[in-house]
Amino acid sequence: MTDCTRESLGRTWTYFALSPRVLCVALKGEVDDWAAYVDAVAGHSHVNEAEEVARRGAKIPRWMAERLFPSMAKAYSWRA
To answer: Which one of 7, 10, 42, 54 has the fewest beta carbons within 10 angstroms of its own beta carbon?
Structure first.
């Protein structure tokens, strides 16, 4: 798991690779909330592909996101 801040996202985020070509991204919102998204990627560079997943991925259920990103779940409220 990787925590980092990218200027292009403008927020704190982290990712978890379910496989080389399936990426989950947790993204902190603007009001100290968070959500997580999943999408297929080419698998060339997860750090670079995470931005696209955060923008266009499908939101995953809260129960799944909390298991993949427990530190985000502890730090922020879930975005409904």
So the answer is: 7
